[in-house]
Amino acid sequence: MNSSSSAPDTAAPSWGLLVSEPVRAAMEYVGARLMERDFLPRGDGHPVVIFPGLAAERHSVEPLKNFCEELGYAAYDWGRGFNTGPHHDVEGWIKDLALHVRQLTERHEQRVSLIGWSLGGIYAREVAKIDPKNVRQVITLGTPIGDSLEANNVSWLYRLLNGQRPLLDTAWMLRLRAAPQVPTTSIFSRGDGIVAWQACLQDGTRADVENIEVRGSHCGLGWNSTVLEIIAGRLSQPENAWKRDARSVTAAQALNLANGPTSEGAQQWQTHG
What letters, b where the CB count within 10 A reaches 16 and e where it falls short, cover 133-163? Predict the structure, then answer.
């Protein structure tokens, strides 16, 4: 697969991964409830806005919102209820969403961090492109960035909710691959049963762009204990002094690891390499 262009050979995750999503997500939720949190860096109070995935709303991101508040951040869900995807005028819809984010956070005198889960990550990235002066960083969880929106197991759900196929054409897909001009972290899992992990990889070698692999399901990314640890570390980065996580990899490195002897070996390489 060529990570610098759309890759029609990227398949949706296997049905085995898909059907095991609920059980794996439940196990991750239990793990997050039991995780030790005293060692995590405390926040500086800056605002954080969290965007839910397709067919999700504030309750799905509540564990993550509560986690951010526990660390000391002013956390908000996106405030728009059930996420059915953008309608008709995508450009105008994103601009309106950026305005709404500004309204959510206008009482703060600090730049906002944006966290987006799955489709919500696309919103977060595009909002940051519209208003980079007011965005501190973007963190996405299982968000398709560099591939067709059909490389997943929920296109049918989008059609059901929205009455049409995903609206993002070739020009929009090219736009999506470009990271916003702020530090941007893409968290992905090879065990994702919803979105093809390859589609979550950010291209390029910019020092403020990174990909970080975790083990887990798609539906559990918002409360996966490793993801929470990563988010705590990313949010605590000093403004204007952001540094990549030691576990981050380029798209090429991640794809090369996929051709290695075992995924376990790939995980060990990321942890210790």
Answer: ebbbbbbbbbbbbbbbbebbbbbeebeeebe
pLDDT band at 168 (very low <50, low <70, confident <90, very high): low
* Token representation of residue 85: 């995807």
Question: Mind giving me the DSSP string for 85-131?
Answer: ---S-HHHHHHHHHHHHHHHHTT-SSPEEEEEETHHHHHHHHHHHH-
DSSP string across 206-253: -TTEEEEE--S-STTTTT-HHHHHHHHHHHTSPTT-----TT-B-HHH
Q: CB-based contacts of 46: which residues, under 8 Å, 6+ apart?
A: 73, 74, 108, 110, 111, 112, 113, 136, 235, 239
DSSP 74: E
Superfamily of domain 15-272: Alpha/Beta hydrolase fold, catalytic domain (3.40.50.1820)
Mean pLDDT within 234-251:
94
Q: What is the pLDDT of residues 103-122, one digit of tens each?
A: 999 999 999 999 999 989 99
pTM for the structure as a whole: 0.87
The predicted structure's pLDDT at residue 86 = 75
Element (H, E) at 141: strand 135-141
pLDDT in tens, 127-153: 999 999 999 999 999 998 865 555 665
